[in-house]
Amino acid sequence: MSIVSVDLRTSRWFAAIGGLLFLLAICQALPAEWQAVLRYDRVRVTAGEVWRLLTPLLVHLGWAHLLLNATGLVLISVIFGADWPAWRWLLALGLSGLVSTLGVHLANPEVYWLVGLSGALHGLFAFGAVGWVRQGDRIVWLLLAGLEEKVLYEQWTGSLALSEAVVGGPFIVGAHLWGSVGGLTAAGVDRLCFRPAPAPL
């Protein structure tokens, strides 16, 4: 791969992440009643408003919640993202988010509504790590083990009080679990449909 093609991929990747962050900021600035149309709502999804399985990724509890998730998105993207074309990276993010919300809808009936990107971010981390594993990077298994330990710990203890204080509400830890499953699903789809991920730098 030439330096020119690498630079082009990197510029497209930065444009995609920048565009997504801009979209998230716009959605956060919407009036509360408009944001309510985007959030996951169990009753309304059951009634047929299925777009709410994906659009909760676009809205957050507040600006602090958005900043936390945006920081996570940038960090994960810096570690893993530039190794993929931007559209494959965003596809993995969307699929992780969809599986996250759908998993909560099917397996966590106590959750009536949710917003935020954190479930999808868990999936994106898993997607990126699996891509490196496919290239023979054994150290990245430690990252996957750490993700698994975090998710399982949350299922046992629930969200941390400090985290709730920062974002202004409880984390839906089921979304983190199902988001991780979504990331593994995205990695499987990616392997079946596209050429192997490039080796980490």
Structure description:
- This protein has 201 residues and is mainly alpha-helical.
- The chain has helices at residues 3-29, 32-38, 42-46, 63-80, 86-107, 118-134, 140-157, 161-167, 173-193, and strands at residues 40-41, 113-114.
- The protein has a two-stranded antiparallel ribbon.
- Helix 5 (86-107) crosses helix 6, helix 6 runs antiparallel to helix 7 and helix 7 packs antiparallel against helix 9.
- The longest helix is centred in the first third of the chain and has 27 residues, at 3-29.
- The protein is globular, with a radius of gyration of 17 Å.
- The model is unreliable at 1-5 (pLDDT under 50).
Q: What's the SSE pattern?
A: HHEHHHEHHHH
Main sheet: which strands, in order across?
1-2
Structural class by helix and strand composition: mainly alpha
Q: Count of helical segments?
A: 9
Oligomer: single chain
What form results from the Cα inertia axes?
globular
Q: Main β-sheet, in a few words? A: 2 strands, antiparallel
**Number of DSSP strand runs:** 2
Beta percentage is: under 5%
- Mean pLDDT over all positions: 87
Distance between the termini: 13 Å
Cα Rg = 17 Å
Helix proportion: over 70%
Low-confidence stretches: 1-5
